[in-house]
Amino acid sequence: MLTPVVIHPFDKIPPGLAEAVRSAIHERFKIHATVGKSLAVPAAAYSPERKQYRSTFLLNMLAIIEPGDKKTRLGMVSVDLYVPELNFVFGEASKSERIAVFSTARLDPRLYGEPADQDLLERRAVTEAIHELGHAFGLEHCSRTDCVMWFSNTLSESDRKGSQFCSRCSRLLGY
Question: For a 10 Å CB count at each end of the chain, is N or C smaller?
């Protein structure tokens, strides 16, 4: 069941980027989405060895915000995220808790020596937000490379898949 989404920017997320994600969530899922209070990235999430932040720490923070309010929480961060089994993750989600988080760190073209491109950054952020919310709403990874639920190992794979659900994933979401 799809529930309203509250987006929580962590630290340095530009308001315009959070608003673009909010608007896309509203449009794609046909649900109410708002930008909630900003949160601080917890220092305990940082791994000095990896120079990254463990995404599960951020999920745990989101899980304790107004528990039982029947809303899905989405965190947006600009720091690089990881889970122990992988070099990095674009994001992580929990279906049972209805929470998700994604990072813009690897989505910004400037990281790769390219010029700033706000439209490209927004498009990539929307793709990752929709993907992680798909997990929070119960979807698994999809075998179709053009579905937003395809597991992306690279930014080029994420760019290729885009932010649309395939017909199967759309049906599983109830539309």
Answer: N
